[in-house]
Amino acid sequence: MHARLAFVALAPFVFASAYAAEFAKTTTADADFVRRASSAGLTEVALGKLAAGQASSDAVKTFAARMVEDHSKSNEALGKLAGTKGLQIAVAPEPAQQQEIDRLKDLDGAKFDRAYSDAMVKDHKLATGLYQLEADKGEDPEIRDWARSQLPVLKEHEKLADGLPPF
Prior knowledge:
Largest sheet: none
Distance between the termini: 80 Å
């Protein structure tokens, strides 16, 4: 009888310890990846929505709509994964990304198309590098596998951005 009472009394501590151990598997580098990846995703969505109203090229508008759709889905999946790990996702683009958004807000037509296209090439090269690093060196297996699963889409985005017409 005492053994059963001891187990019942200690069970919450055992389960809490297992829960804490699960969170401890996620390193600072993995948490940093989640924050940076979610910030980059928010930026892609914001710039894609901006392009819907300010781009003059149908190719840019089509590409931008794809960025909004794909990065919205990715952001949602990353948010769910982060939640299971007790990690915070970004709630806004990083300052440098916000500056890029603000700079493009002042452009329209062909000037916007050119600046947006250039930004998409640069941003996707950076994102692919960020995800590749996590895919290769991430310590949390679920976050590492998620990054790996996203790489083909990011590489396709990079290729599509490279293929936008020169403006």
